Amino acid sequence: MGELILIRHGETAWTLTGQHTSHTDLPLTEHGEAQARAVAPLLAGRRIGLTLVSPAARARRTAELAGLTAPHVRPDLSEWDYGAYEGVTTPEIQRDRPDWNLWTDGVAAGPAAHPGESAEQVGERADRVLAEAVGALESDGDVALVAHSHFLRVLTARYLGLPASAGSLFLLGTGAVSRLGTEHGRPVITAWNTTLPQGVPVSVG
């Protein structure tokens, strides 16, 4: 049986500033594109039968530069809807809510198109993605999921049978690759937050 390969998109301008980014469709920075290309060697030798990707341009571009072909866009892979906190940093939020924590406190309500989500609501989307992805593992080799930090952290928690809020335990950097598999039939993390060491040449051909 194959593994779920989780790929966080490369760096964007808001990654650098720490602004919460869900529906704002930012491109990768130059460094973010280099991070995406550096994913390809980490996938060498894997038989990926299915790639599912977030609709966001930063995720789709990461999949392309990583050499993942024929990706299937899934809206359920979108990042956590931050509601009124879109584009706002954690220190800015904590000026008014000093003890605020995304995982336990959620977000302030946003406009009708982006009202915000709780951890549990993101978990419901993750469960739908997992139902499709785990089903495909049985016959198609590995399944790659190209998406976003908070969403993939929630998905990992749900895969392990934990509440969505337990995603707070799993730090995930830009351009990082992680793997979820099984041991003796039980779900486990087989690799986490892996990136290519700096200075290792990456083919751009």
Description:
The chain is of the alpha/beta class and 205 residues long. The protein is built from eight helices and six strands. A six-stranded mixed β-sheet has the order 3-2-4-1-5-6. α7 packs across α8 (149-159). The radius of gyration is 16 Å and the shape is globular. The two termini are 31 Å apart. The relative contact order is 0.22. The mean pLDDT is 95.
In short:
This protein is 34% helix and 17% strand.
Report the helical percentage. 25-40%
Global geometry: globular
Strand content: 15-25%
Q: In this structure, how is the largest beta sheet organized?
A: 6 strands, mixed
Distance between the termini: 31 Å
Task: Report low-confidence residues grouped into runs of 5 or more.
Answer: none
Give, in spatial order, the strands making up the sheet with the most strands.
3-2-4-1-5-6
Structural category = alpha/beta
Mean pLDDT: 95
The tally of helices reads 8
- Number of DSSP strands? 6
What's the alpha carbon Rg, rounded to whole Å? Answer: 16 Å
Order of helices and strands: EHHHEHEHHHEHEE
* Oligomeric organization of the protein chains: single chain
